[in-house]
Every structure is written in structure tokens, then in C-alpha cells.
Predict the structure of histidine kinase.
Amino acid sequence: MNDRQLTYQELISNGIKKLVIIITLSISALILIIVGVQQSLLTVHEAQGQMMGLNRANIDDIPSFIHWNNQNNRHSKQNTVIRVKTNKSSITATSGREGQVIMTSSASKKFIAQRKFSVFGKNVVYVNGYGFFLFYSQKESDTTYQIWVSLNKLINSMILLLIIISIVVFITLGFGTWWAQQLAAKLSAPTIQLVNETRSTIKDSEVDQPTLTVPKSPQEIHELGNAFNDLLTAQNERLQREKDFVSNASHELRTPIAAVRGNINLIKRHGDKHPEVIPESLDFIDEESLRMQNLIENLLHLSRADRAKVILQDENLSEITEQIGQHYEASIPHKMNLEIEPDLHISGHCDTLKQIIVALLDNANKYSDDDAPITLSLKSIDHKVELSVADLGMGIPDDQKKLIFQRFYRVDTSHSTEIKGSGLGLSIVSQLVKLNNGSIEVLNNQPRGSIFKITFDEI
């Protein structure tokens, strides 16, 4: 059993070959049938006409037969044998295409004496030694009329036509096969080119993959190439994000680890002679280790958010937001403005919704002065529920609004040591919002600051 997979070119070529064969043979068979039927009908019509003429002429002697024969047989297109038999005599005549009439002779007597076999009914007979004939017989009173019209020329013409058609079919199939191969190669060339380029892009999956050169036609291959390019672009972006993540995570962890080891070495070298450095170094070690702990926890949160699958159900977002806002206000120096419409429901996950609100309030708390208020609002607009946290902090430049949801991105890097954080909080928020089928955006607050607005579908 041959399990070899056919190539695109072979499939196209075989399909076109079959189509050419079917069309050619169908046309040839149709021509043969039409010509054969037409010639057969003409021969039958001619034979029936002669038989009708014999019947109407009421021939009963040789002169009347000769007169009729001179008037009719000269138009015959086939070799014809006519016999008129009465009780007294039997007259036989043969004629050809030129209208020559030969009366009763030894040849005609020999023809009459030959055995005749019926073929395809009683009207088509085979005469031994002479071939196929169309035979009609009719009796009127004491006179019997018989006519044999030769089918040999018709058969020979059909054979010649069949030979000519066979030659044409052979030539057509040869040309069709060559044309099919050329067309198949042309049609499959863009696909093969795309496949070869695709294979070259996957040799090293760890580096950025170049986009494919997309053929302009056919349209299907063009769209397939564009889809591949979109996939490669997404893969390149993913690889770049992973590289940035590893680089940023390494950098964020390297700094506290270096600080911890530096203070440990400081204690080892000077702890005996200068014991006053020990408490200060231990406090610094504790602070940096706590920073590493927070960073690792955030990384775990982000990893879980990337892979999490939560079950969404009907949640009263108004109650969740009101509860978190009241509890959070007691733990910060800022004034909290709660603008929450009652009884707004969404399809969401309670724990992740709480985590989103707390993270946004933490962010507003870090980037706002102590005397600046924070506004937590929830309202319904056009069957959408909008949750927003507004602050009067330093604000976010327009060109960085989309970047702040990337991992480890910090808007004001010059204050990274003053404002504690790992740059992962908003990235985690973005993932959790997606898990709850929401969308998040950043707007400018007035007179300054930022508004983080999340939109959910209301139920």
C-alpha cells in the first residue's frame, strides 16, 4: 500500500488531467453518437422511401421495374439490392452511389442465395460475404418487395471518424497533460515559496523571526501569508516580552540581593569593632528581603493571572466596591470620595474583583500627596458598568499610557527608590480585568492626576 502524500502540484496536475480526459472523451463520444445517429437515420429514411416508392409503383413486370429504378435509384447514396418477386417471376437489381443499375445477374443471384442473419432486430441483417445491410420487406397482393441497403460505407465512415477522433484525443491528452503540469507548477509555486520561507523561520525559535515575503496572488495564498506574518509578529512580541521580563526580573532581584550581601559583608568585617553598624545593617537587610518577598509574590500573582481560569458568576459590584472603599479609607491618610451607584451587577469573580480595586487604590495612594483626595466611583452608562479610581498625583504622559500595563514599567524611574514597588501591580490588574471580561484605560484627571477606568458588561 502506497502511503506517500501527494504534493499540491501533483494534486492539481492529476485533477486537471482527469478533467481534460473526461471533457475530451465526452466530446468525442458525443460527436460519434450524433454523426452515427444522423447517418443511420438518413440511411433508414432513404430505405423506407425506396420501399414506399416500390409499393406505390405497383411493379409487376420488368419494364415497369426498369422505369421505376431509373427514376429513383440514381439518387441512392448506398449500395442497394432490390428484389421484386411475383408468382410468375423474380426481378433483382443493384445500384450504387452513381445511380448505375444492374438488372438480374449472377452476382445479384449469388447475393440473394447467401445466408442472412438478423442482427439487432429483423431490419438489420448480416449477409455472409457481403456485410451488414438494412433490410425491409413488404407484400402487396401477389407481389413481394424486398430491399437491402448496405451499411458498409456507413460503418467504414464511422470507423474513419473514430480513427480521426482517436488521433485528436491522443494529441489533446498529450497537450493537456503538459499544460496541466505547467499550470500546476505555476499555481503551486507561491505555496511552495511560502512553505520554504516558513521552514526557514522556525530554524531558531529563540530569535526574532523575520516576516515572510507574501505573494500578491492568488488571493488565498496572499491572505495565508499575511496570517503567518501576523502570527510571527505576535510571536516576536511575546519573545520580546519574555526577554524583557527575564531581564527586568533579574535586575529587580539583583539589586536587593547585592544590598543584602553588602551589609552581611559589612557586619563580618566591622561588626566586632563597630557593633553600632549591626542594627542598621540588619534593618536594611530586613527591608531589602521584604522587597524581594513582595517582588516574588507579585511575580507569582502575575504568573497565576496569565494562566488562571476563573468561574464568573453574578456579582453585586456595588457592595464589593463600597466595602473595600470603606475599609481602605481607614488605612490611608487620603480622603476617600465614594461615588457608588447601588445594586450594579456584573458577571465576574469576587476575589479577583477585590484584588483589582485594592491594587488601583494602592497605586493612587503611592502616587498622590497625603492631602490629595482619591475618588472611587461606580456607575452605569448605556448598559455598561464603569469602575474608576481617580487621583490628583503626578499624572501619566499620553505616550506612556499604554506602556504602564507592561511588566516592570515605571513612569517616573527617577523616583523608583522613593516610591516603593516592583512595577508589576498594573500588569497584574490588566490580566485580572481580562479574566473578568472587562477593559481598562487611563484618562487624564482635572486639574491633574490620572483616572483608571474599567468597563464591564452590566447584567
Remarks:
- The radius of gyration is 51 Å.
- The longest strand covers residues 131-140.
- Residues 413-417 have pLDDT under 50 and may be disordered.
- The CA atoms of residues 114 and 128 lie 6 Å apart.
